[in-house]
Amino acid sequence: YLVLKLPTNPPHDSSMMVLDHLLQQMTPEGYMVRCQHGSDLPDSRPEPDIAVVRGDFRTFRARHPRPDEMALVVEVADSSLL
Question: Which of 19, 28, 34, 48 is the most buried (most CB within 10 A)?
Fold first, then answer.
């Protein structure tokens, strides 16, 4: 099935780049920053703009992070806030 998504725009992309840069510097060992990648919830598979999750690249080769592995989830909403 087709899922319609709003296209990104420069303010959204700029915010994402700033957040990614800052979080990469602040994220403790044993955690990683994921940008616009899936996560596993009991009833859906959202793709948050940014998530800080416990694990590394090998942890998520065969699955998405679960809620108990997510330390921070960010959705950037500049034009879609309302």
Answer: 34
Percent of the chain residues topping a pLDDT of 90:
78
Residues 23/33, Cβ–Cβ less than 8 Å: yes
pTM for the model stands at: 0.86
C-alpha–C-alpha distance, residues 5 and 71, integer Å: 25
> In whole angstroms, what is the distance from residue 14 CA to residue 50 CA?
13
Q: What angle do CA 11, 16, 21 make, to 5 degrees?
A: 130
User: 65-77 pLDDT, tens per residue?
Assistant: 999 999 999 999 8
Please name the amino acid found at residue 63.
R
Give the list of residues 6+ apart from residue 21 with CB closer than 8 angstroms, or none.
none
By the 8 A CB rule, do 51 and 74 touch?
A: yes
